[in-house]
Design brief:
Layout lengths: L10 H28 L6 H5 L5 E3 L5 E4 L15 H11 L12 H14 L8 H10 L9 H17 L2 H11 L9 H9 L8 H9 L13 H17 L5 H8 L19 H19 L10 E4 L3 H12 L12 E7 L6 E5 L26 H13 L6 E4 L2 E2 L6 E2 L8 E4 H6 L3 H11 L1 H9 L20 H13 L2 E2 L5 E5 L5 E3 L5 E2 L3 H11 L1 H6 L11 E8 L2 H6 L7 E9 L4 E7 L15 H17 L11 E7 L17 E7 L15 H7 L5 H18 L10 H6 L8 H16 L2 H9 L8 H7 L5 H8 L3 H8 L1 H4 L7 H9 L1 H8 L1
Parallel strand pairs: 1-3
Antiparallel strand pairs: 1-2, 3-11, 4-5, 4-16, 6-9, 7-8, 10-13, 11-12, 14-15, 15-16, 17-18
Helix pairs in contact: 3-9, 3-10, 5-6, 5-7, 8-9, 9-10, 10-11, 13-22, 14-16, 14-17, 14-19, 18-19, 19-24, 24-26, 26-27, 28-29, 29-33, 30-32, 30-33, 32-33
């Protein structure tokens, strides 16, 4: 009796199991395929024929631009030369006419093998699948999922069932992006060669056929060698596909890539007013979108940006009309950035004036080739001193003769005067150069560089003159000052908040901030900078608004003036950085050819006035005017205003003049007095800030600020008002204001300084004199401006630039540096 074979591992059984497994896998695949197919986006003839444009909307959802919407000349397939068809099919999908389902199983299999071995999901797409991708899908790498591939194949099959091969080819050839804002082969023929498609040579058609694969990489204007290599690849594909003869191929390959190529021209924004107004912003947003892996010209995206279009429009009108600010001529340029300090969102941006309908031109808001003058001082000098050395706002500094170590280069201010000992508050508000550089020296340049690096600024210069001006952009300035506004957190600025792809995938973006400084540092800097608009640069003052700011100006070196005497008394760059708790704005003004013409003293206040016009609009429409509250890490003291190096706390009932100053907790002079210990009478009596200077600065703002938060409020603060006041600076703090008025009295009171102040109205400053000049008009501005002149100073060797190495030679910035200092700054002072 034979034994029955019970071995289950027979060939027949193994085959059965394999077939069963394959059947199950196929079933699972089909189930998944059908499941994904039902959730695939719809495709219609309308969107197949439409251009491959993406829409850009502002933060409220209003459309401000459509990329490529009206840059296309649609051509029907009967008007397309056969060689153009052959070129496209040969390089993109040589089996196109033999794919009844719109997919190529062999290519898909090869692609699947590569996907498994290389870990990607790219490749295997037919021309029909590419059309589907251009119509409803994103090209972003992370969106190329298995689900997307399945949906792409399904839609390609649907398209192949509904449309003929000629129709599909027509849709594709009109949808492809050819760089420079150009869509479709007919439009490309006119843009690149100034001809109709039928008039092009074989070599020219091959170039157009090769561009869609990587439009920017194969641009014949910017990458002629790569463009030729790609064109020749198309020609060889046509030959291998038996569409042209060998002699035709050789002739076309030997044709120079520049043959028949039209001179490069930028595509205008036509009559799209919104696009013109928002163009510099859109340029940066598109760059950001590309960095995220998308192609906004091919992916049919809906891009939501952080722009407040109303604020953008107002900023555009401010710099392009004479309704808000007077400009000396049409050539003075502007670069301005508005940032939300609480999240890093770029709210508005202007890249220049009188740009017409040029698309994607120079964006001066992000250029880093001009010195920021004294707007650098809070960032690189004084904030690090508070952060690392625990300096108080009263810390005494010397404005005395100074020579850069190891050189014979003497640093000066615009007025070529020395004001002697003064507090850090006065030095910052009055923008004195020598105290700033001495502060940077005390901090250490390497420590200061590390500090600003946390604010998104990389300092390359090695000389101390960078403490009064270095090369940064207005966007960097607005973002760095934002950290002062929000209490010490740095947010990297960004433009795009959301990207929605045609197939319904939504990507949202935001920035998490990083701690850049202690809250005590941010608050104390803000407290001092509140004195700038209220008492120094009063042309930037906005009555009643809690704000802080800093002026900056760079002047010319003696060498530049020797080469062009017309530059004497003018500034190379003029800045104003200002902020509230809701917005941070940085404005640069200057000429694109600075060695030909500079900014006269009369117009060095333009940057501050642009700030004022835009910030006033934002404040009116925000319905919010919060003041800064003094953190527990900061201590306020009434300090006797006697110029002593060590601060002496005012005794209650004393008739001595005093200044209200801030200290890092744990580093304040001992005091057993409470604010309530100072009677109102004595307070008013004694309150007078330091002669003018502090005054200004001071306090008031300061105090008031703090006040915001604390009992200090009562204090009318010192003479602060006084000064400014005059100007009506009420500005900012209401408390201040009052002060102001009271000021006067105060002034009376207290002290000379005060009085002086009073007088001055001008401005507080001891320097009064100088200031005064300043005062006038536009305030400090001018004065400084005036200052400017001088340049000499600038020249000043200060040129320091040299010292700094800077050098950029003076160049622009440099100069700044250059002058750096000195002069420069001087202006900076402004």
């Amino acid at each position: 009796m034979s034994k029955k074979n019970t071995n289950i591992f027979t060939f027949k059984n193994i085959l059965k199991w394999l077939l069963s497994i394959i059947a199950v896998l196929v079933g699972i695949f089909l189930f998944i395929f059908v499941y994904y197919a039902f959730s695939a986006p719809t495709v219609s003839q309308e969107n197949l024929q439409s251009g491959g444009s993406s829409s850009i909307v502002d933060s409220t959802g209003k459309q401000i631009a459509s990329l490529g919407d009206n840059k296309r000349n649609y051509v029907t397939i009967d008007k397309v030369p056969q060689q153009m068809e052959d070129a496209v099919v040969s390089i993109e999908d040589k089996n196109f006419y033999n794919e009844p389902l719109g997919i190529d199983p062999v290519r898909i299999a090869k692609s699947a093998f590569n996907n498994v071995t290389k870990g990607t999901l790219q490749g295997g797409s037919t021309l029909t699948q590419q059309l589907v991708k251009l119509t409803v899908f994103s090209t972003e790498t992370k969106d190329q999922t298995f689900k997307r591939k399945m949906q792409e194949a399904w839609l390609a099959m649907r398209v192949s069932q509904k449309f003929s091969k000629q129709q599909i080819l027509e849709f594709y050839m009109n949808k492809v992006y050819l760089n420079n804002g150009i869509y479709g082969v007919e439009t490309g023929a006119k843009y690149y060669y100034g001809k109709n498609l039928k008039q092009l040579s074989l070599a020219q058609m091959a170039l157009l056929a090769g561009l869609p694969n990587a439009p920017s990489n194969y641009d014949p204007y910017t990458h002629p060698e790569a463009a030729k290599n790609r064109r020749d690849l198309v020609i060889r594909a046509m030959y291998n596909n038996n569409k042209i003869t060998k002699s035709q191929a050789e002739e076309a390959i030997n044709t120079p890539i520049s043959s028949g190529l039209q001179p490069y021209k930028k595509v205008s924004n036509s009559n799209n007013t919104k696009r013109i107004i928002a163009d510099p912003y859109i340029k940066e947003a598109i760059t950001e979108v590309k960095k995220k892996g998308f192609d906004p010209y091919r992916d049919n995206l809906k891009i939501t940006v952080n722009m407040d279009y109303a604020a953008q429009k107002r900023l555009y009108n401010i710099v392009n009309t004479s309704n808000y600010v007077s400009f000396p001529d049409s050539k003075l340029q502007v670069g301005a950035s508005v940032v939300n300090p609480n999240n890093g969102k770029v709210v508005a941006m202007i890249g220049g004036r009188n740009l017409g309908d040029v698309q994607f031109g120079l964006n001066r808001a992000v250029q880093t080739g001009r010195s920021n003058g004294s707007t650098m001082k809070p960032l690189l000098d004084y904030a690090p001193a508070i952060e690392n050395l625990n300096w108080s706002t009263y810390h005494q500094l010397e404005d005395t003769e100074y020579t850069y170590a190891g050189t014979d280069i003497q640093l000066k201010d615009w007025d070529e005067q020395y004001e002697g000992q003064m507090s850090m508050r006065k030095a910052l508000v009055n923008s004195r150069n020598i105290p700033a550089v001495r502060t940077l020296s005390a901090v250490g340049l390497s420590n200061a560089k590390q500090f600003v690096k946390k604010l998104g600024i990389n300092i390359k210069e090695n000389g101390l003159s960078v403490g009064i001006g270095g090369n940064i952009s207005s966007l960097q300035g607005a973002s760095a000052y934002s950290a002062f506004s929000n209490g010490g957190t740095y947010y990297k600025p960004y433009y795009v908040s959301k990207i929605e792809t045609a197939d319904g995938i939504t990507h949202t973006y935001n920035k998490s901030g990083t701690t850049a400084m202690k809250d005590s540092t941010a608050y104390m800097i803000t407290d001092m900078l509140k004195g700038v608009p209220s008492t120094y640069a009063t042309y930037a003052n906005i009555s009643g608004l809690h704000q802080a700011g800093k002026t900056g100006t760079t002047n010319y070196s003696s060498e530049s003036i020797a080469a062009n005497s017309a530059l004497s008394g003018t500034a190379k760059d003029s800045w104003y950085n200002g902020y509230t708790k809701n917005y941070s704005i940085s404005v640069w003004t200057g000429y694109d050819s600075p060695n030909e013409k500079g900014i006269s003293s009369t117009y060095q206040s333009v940057a501050g006035k642009i700030y004022k016009a835009e910030m006033s609009y934002l404040a009116e429409n925000t319905n919010s005017n919060p003041n800064w509250k003094k953190p527990s890490s900061v201590v306020s003291r009434r300090i006797v205003n006697d110029g002593s190096t060590d601060p002496v706390v005012l005794k209650p009932g004393s008739s001595q003049s005093y200044t209200k100053e801030l200290f890092v907790k744990g580093h304040a002079p001992a005091s057993s007095y409470k604010e309530s210990d100072y009677s109102s009478s004595s307070a008013s009596k004694s309150s007078s800030n330091e002669v003018t200077s502090n005054n200004q600065s001071s306090s008031s703002s300061e105090s008031s600020d703090s006040d915001n938060d604390t009992s200090d409020q009562t204090e009318t603060e010192t003479g602060t008002g006084s000064d400014s006041d005059d100007q009506t600076n009420s500005d900012t703090n209401t408390t201040d204001n009052n002060n102001t008025s009271s000021d006067s009295s105060n002034s009376s009171d207290t002290n000379t300084g005060t009085s002086s102040n009073s007088n001055n109205t001008n401005s507080t400053n001891t320097g009064n004199s100088d200031n005064s000049t300043n005062s006038n008009t536009n305030t400090g501005d001018t004065s400084n401006n005036n200052s400017s002149n001088t340049n000499t100073g600038s020249d000043t060797n200060t040129d320091s630039g040299s010292s700094s190495g800077d050098s950029n030679g003076g160049s622009t910035t440099n100069s700044g540096a250059t002058t750096n200092g000195s002069s420069t700054d001087s202006s900076s002072a402004q």
